[in-house]
Amino acid sequence: MTASKDQLYRPGESELSLWLQPEQDDWLLLQQYSASAPEVLARFTNHAAALAAQQQVLAARLADGFLQADTAIPAVHTETDSKSTTSPDPRRTSQQAELETHLIKDLHADAWRLLSARQRTRLVWRIGEVRAAAAVPRLIELLGSEKTKHGLLDYCIAWALGRCHDRGAMAALDELSRCATHPAAQRIARDAWLALANASERSQWAERQIADWALPLREAWQQQDIATLQARLSAPTEWDQALLRQPYGDWLEEFDRVSLSANWARPLLLQALSTLPLLGGTFRAARHIYKAAELRGDAAVWSLLQRRFEQTPAQFTRSHATQWVAFDNEWLRSNEELPRNNSRLAYSNRTRAYLVRRGWRYLRRLAVQGSAEFVPLAAAALLQYDDARTDLSGYTQHNASVFEQGRWQMQTRYCHPFSRSMLLNHLLLKASGSIHCGRNSELWWSATPWHGELTQQPVPFAAMWAERPDALLHLLLTSRAELVHAFAAPLLLSTDGEPTRPQQMYLQQLDEHYWARLLNSPMAVTAEAAMRWILPKVSSDNSQHWLALLLASRHPAVAQAGLTILEQNPQAATGSLATLSAVVLARTPEVRRFGRVLCQIAASQSALLTALLAQLLSELRLRDQHSFALAEICENLSWVLANPLIQTLTTDVYPEFLALLQHTAQPIVLLAAGALLHYPAQNCPATAYQRLLSSPEPEIQAAGVRLLAALPTDVLLTQSSMLLNFCLSDAAQVRQAAQQALQQIAPSLPANALAPLFDALFRAESSEGLHADLLTLLTATLAEFMHLRADQATMLRLLLARSRGAQAYGSWLLQQSQDHEVALSDWSRLARHEALAVRQRAMQVLDTNWPQIGVYGVLPVLLSRWPDTRQQALGWLRERVDPDAWSPESMIALCDNEYPEVRALGCDLLQQRLAQHRNQDCLLALAAHPSLQVQRFVASWLAQVLDAGESAAYDVQQESPQATYLQLAEYRHFLLTVLSQVNRGRAAKQALFKLLSALSLQSESLAQEVASLYQRLVLTVAIADKAQYIAALAKIRQHYPHIETGLQICPPTHRQSEHRQPVRGVA
Questions:
Q1: Which InterPro entries match (predicted)?
Q2: Rounded to the nearest 5 degrees, what angle is found at the Cα of 870, between the Cα atoms of 867 and 871?
Q3: Per the count of CB atoms within 10 A, which of 436, 716, 729, 778 is most buried?
Q4: What pTM was computed for the model?
Q5: How close are the terminal C-alpha atoms of the chain, in Å?
Q6: Phi, psi angles (nearest 5°) of residue 517
Q7: What sections of 266-416 are H helices per DSSP?
Q8: Where are the domains of the chain?
């Protein structure tokens, strides 16, 4: 079984539930915010201790600004105390007595005969409203006196009998509930009978009703299966009438009646009514429950439904009785559909307007006759308003055109969030002065902005509210609407009244925790009103506990008022435990700063500081992650513990800090971990380290690492691998804490201990800043420890890695190294490094060691993607290397480079060699190069080698056609590659085409080779080049007719126009 939950709320945050739950032989104290999972606050073996802890936590949450709907309020101990709404009102003024006498007089037979049917029902209803118990005998006589099809008189009589609280009418009501001709009269008679019945009679009646329920419902009720009942109540659309044997609406009405004898079921009903759709099939039940709640004065149900009627739009608009309404692709006549038991239509605009007006009319009549029911019902209605669910989006303004002074004018209207609520505005405002209401009170607005306007207006029914300060206090402690607070705070906490006023007398008897809740109310208007009431007490009584309440407020204005008083006489506060605790745990920064000064002044009072520490830890245990300014408070407390209260950190409070490590709030755990640093770390149990180091929260894990770092060096060395893992954590806080710990044991670490850190530099960052922190650790924190640095091989791996972090650490290591410690071949590789400093140093080393490196040492530098490095290397090669010193392989390597300036150098060198008739075989090696520049170069020189008609650089006339044919065959792949290119290499292609066309006319063998090339090109090249190859093939065929060219020449055909047949009907 789960105990009942305390439901708390603070504006702008999730709702909070607090409850006790049994688990085997223990009791768990749990809390849950609506947006998170339940969390265990404590475990108890004793139920009484668990209840006490629950009350302490509840008080702490309420003092922190949370609101509780069902909070306990001290009763008003005056002779005018109001009784329960289920008993007759004992306050009878002469006006009320005269009204009752007048109404009862009209019940006499002579007067009764003269009344119309409408007047009779109205008379009986009025008797019920004033609870005229003397009229009960006459009303019983009138039961069944009028036989009408609607049974309205019997309905009104049953309602009045239930209101008059005369148990002598129970028999008549019971008979009427069974024998009335109209179902409405039967229903209201049953509700009236239940209103008069005692607890035993209600329970017996409920048992008989539950026995007729379907088995699933009956078992769920008997076993108090809240989950099953809640699921049934909240899902009317999934109701299985065949299985459960009655409509959902009928069962909901029965549930309302039987729950009167079971308090545990009432919250289920309220929750179901808060989400019940006001549609056909469910609205009728909601309306019946609403009227039953009105009969028995059930403020919770009545106010909830009244607010639902205000907020829920009508299902359809009905302007006349026989109106047709479109529903689910069907047209329904409203006067035929609405009376049906399974009507699909319900809750029209006229019904909604009637119910909204009925609620206000009901309260107004209670107030006019001075009934004690007015204040409880009105307070319950006001509690239904929530700033999170408003009619309008906050305070708004709009312009309206009004006809004034004979012309139309624009008027600015200011609306508050509930300006469309008829009930709230009638209860809080009067349409006078700058406040106006529209037609039918549908909209209320002000001619001036609303801020401060409400407190300056006359309060409706102020005298009745003044007699019930407990109701006003209940509003201030539970209401979620700022307007309600602005209404109730001046009424209850006004400081301009006489001491004998009921409010003043009531406030004098309030406990301190109520004032703490008022001063920390989520609404500033309530906190400031409470402050104004307390300030005279602080000044006159010089009471430190009142001052502590002001200083602990979450509202800056309230805390500042207390701080002003404190600054006038700080010495008096240094001896007050309550004041010192309040300033240290204050929710405003100004008070916390002054609290540090007070603690320093009180540093000589060791006994007081010891008690202060115990008080601080006791209050801190009751707070949670959502407590107001908890992180700032814990930070301030950490400073106080480390300075004025350092002397109080004895072994006696050491277990207290260990216990705080189990707290659910992160700032409190961090505070406890920081406090443990003031004790020998070896005394801390292993479970504490495990709790901190295994936490998913980075801040808590970092605190555990700092606590671990406080261990002696020999002990810390055994955990070096753990520290290295923490140095690689994704959380920056953990990494920084681990680096500080690692510095302590660095002298004793082996040479290869940091290998995991080097490996992490090669990998991509798992979290932002990881490589930066590792670089700080390796290049600053551990820079002095030479044995921990990476070796030369690892340094080169780091420099040549893709990771920027690895390159940065490699660059730092290179700065610490001498030139001779790195091989020249490695310097050639480093000349291509991304870091400018590394490249510059590498080029400097290569320049210094030029005789040793030579051409082959510089060639790798030409692969660098940095232009400045390539240009410097090319300058060396042009200036320092003789053209004859180049080997063919080196020249080919230059021509094969990806950068054009390097290829240009290679082509220049090769051109000089070819001009000297040397290294002709280099052309064949370069023929496969993909660069256009190299292809043009090869094509140009190939033309000189093969063209028999040219005699500029190389005379080929001495060579036979057979030799030329063999050379052409060697370059066949090159020729196909160049000539097959699409939209590129136009100059090289034209040069080769011109060369091949000339060669094809010199000999038959050459013509055969060229023809085979052209035949393949005709089938593969783009259309733009195809025509010239076909023309060349035709020319070859003309010179050598017997060579197969693949051409088939066809004579052109002459097309003759076809004569069109004449169209029929056209001349």
A1: ARM-type_fold
A2: 85
A3: 778
A4: 0.75
A5: 105
A6: -70, -40
A7: 266-275, 283-296, 299-311, 334-337, 349-368, 374-382
A8: 6-63, 94-361, 384-402+409-509, 750-814, 818-881, 927-1046
